Amino acid sequence: MLIRRITDSDILGGAPEFMDAVSRYGSRGVLVDDMLNVAMMYMPKINLYKLPGGGIDEGENIRDAFLRELKEETGYEAEIIHELGGIEEHKNKNNFMQYSYCFIAKAIKGNGNTMLTESESQLDMTMEWMTFEKALEVMDYAEINCVDYSTRFMIVRDKTILEKAINLLIPDFVTSVID
User: Fold this and answer.
1) What pTM does this model have?
2) Hey, which residues does 54 pair with through a beta bridge?
3) Over 70: is that where the pLDDT of 87 sits?
4) How many Cα atoms occupy the beta-carbon half-sphere of 138 within 13 Å?
5) Whole-angstrom Cα distance, residue 83 to residue 27?
6) In the chain, what are the domain boundaries?
7) How much is the CA Rg of the chain, to the nearest whole Å?
C-alpha cells in the first residue's frame, strides 16, 4: 500500500512529476517504548531530527532491514507491530527516486551500543525519546526552517510516517489544525 508520493511540487511548487525507476530502497519508521514515546534521531551539527531507518542491503528482507537499522542507530532490539506501507520520493532535480518501506516497531531491549555509519557519526547523531507531540513539534520546526532540497524530502517523508503512526496508535490524537 502506498502512503504517499513526494515530488518536487511538494518541495518547490509546480506540477508533480513522477520518475519511473527506483534508485534506492529504504526501510524506516517509528520506534516506540512502553510509554508510547518515539525514538527520534538527532543530528546536532545540522540541528535536525529524523526517524530511524536507512537503505536495504542487497538480498535483505525489508522487515529485517528495518530491525537492523533500529539496532544500528538506536541500540535497541525491537519487534515490528505494524506495517504502514511505502513512500516514494521523486527527486527530479537530483534524478533520484527512493522507495521506503515504513513500519512501527516496539522497543524490546537496548544496550546503548550503536553502529553508526561514517556520515551519521560525523553529524554526531544520537537518539532521543520524546512524546509524539514533541516529535511532531520538532518535525514542524524543521519543515518550516530547512532550505536544503534533499533534506526537505526527508522531513516531509518522516513527518508523513510519524502522522500515520500516530493515527494508528493514538486515534484521538489531532495531527493537524483545521483553520
Assistant:
1) 0.92
2) 27
3) yes
4) 21
5) 11
6) 2-169
7) 16
Please choose, from the candidates 158, 2, 152, 157, the residue with its C-alpha nearest in 3D space to the C-alpha of residue 83.
2
For position 176, what pLDDT does the model report? 54
As a whole number of angstroms, the distance between CA 58 and CA 140 comes to 34
Q: What is the pLDDT of residues 103-123, one digit of tens each?
A: 999 999 888 788 888 888 888
Strands 96-110 and 24-32, how do they pair? parallel
Segment 132-154 shows an average pLDDT of 94
Alpha-carbon torsion 132, 135, 141, 144, what sign?
A: negative
In the block, cell 496508535 appears at 169
Q: Name beta bridge partners: 170.
A: none
List CB contacts of 110: < 8 A, sequence separation 6 or more. Answer: 74, 75, 76, 77
Which of these CATH numbers, 3.40.50.2000, 3.40.190.10, 3.40.220.10, 3.90.79.10, describes 2-169?
Answer: 3.90.79.10
